[in-house]
């Protein structure tokens, strides 16, 4: 049975291939080439990928990114499509699903929504529920730098507190849109925000995400 991560991986590869290496993304300073290199380094160079979280490994990460960014773009896209090496932890279905379903969804939207002709994508209910489940568990982590209280709300009324504080801003949207918002793509997320005008303005420019 195909997992959400596997489906989003293939979609991301297709989108990168169609957009081309020089196309923009929602990731500041990254074209599709850099985004593709990031995905490959993250799952094929664990010795360098730690630099995403640890400053002490930042130099190693930068070197690996430079190395992979210089590779033929078609090779990068194919490496994403075929997945990690057999001995990688990401090759285990459970770990791949836990670590990559959200990662690949967000990056697929990074490519889609940076293009001038993008159109909304309707997610199936099962995937939406899966995204919401992940978001509930990660809300406090992604919202830890919020300058205001932050509450996430689905259209069905389910809520999650991403950051305690006052004043409070409530962000309402489908799970996929809330995920993008919480991962720092506030401007691209189709959500509604309720709260004091100044608090809303501060939240929309805050550095949310991991």
TrEMBL record:
InterPro entries: CHP03085, DinB/YfiT-like, Maleyloyr_isom. It comes from the Bacteria. NCBIfam families: maleylpyruvate isomerase family mycothiol-dependent enzyme, TIGR03085 family metal-binding protein. This is TIGR03085 family metal-binding protein.
């Amino acid at each position: 049975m195909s997992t959400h991560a596997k489906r989003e991986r293939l979609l991301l590869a297709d989108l990168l291939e169609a957009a081309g290496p020089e196309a923009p993304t929602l990731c500041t300073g990254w074209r599709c080439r850099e985004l593709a290199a990031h995905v490959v380094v993250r799952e094929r160079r664990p010795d360098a990928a730690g630099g995403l979280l640890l400053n002490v490994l930042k130099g190693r990460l930068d070197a690996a990114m430079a190395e992979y960014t210089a590779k033929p773009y078609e090779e990068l896209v194919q490496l994403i499509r075929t997945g990690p090496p057999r001995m990688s932890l990401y090759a285990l279905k459970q770990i791949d699903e836990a670590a990559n379903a959200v990662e690949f969804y967000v990056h697929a939207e990074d490519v889609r929504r940076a293009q001038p002709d993008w159109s909304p994508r309707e997610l199936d209910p099962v995937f939406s529920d899966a995204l919401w489940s992940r978001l509930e568990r990660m809300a406090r982590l992604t919202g830890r730098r919020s300058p205001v209280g932050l509450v996430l709300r689905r259209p069905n009324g389910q809520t999650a507190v991403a950051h305690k504080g006052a004043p409070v801003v409530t962000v309402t949207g489908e799970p996929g849109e809330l995920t993008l918002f919480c991962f720092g793509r506030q401007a691209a997320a189709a959500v509604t925000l309720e709260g004091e005008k100044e608090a809303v303005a501060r939240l929309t420019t805050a550095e949310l995400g991991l």
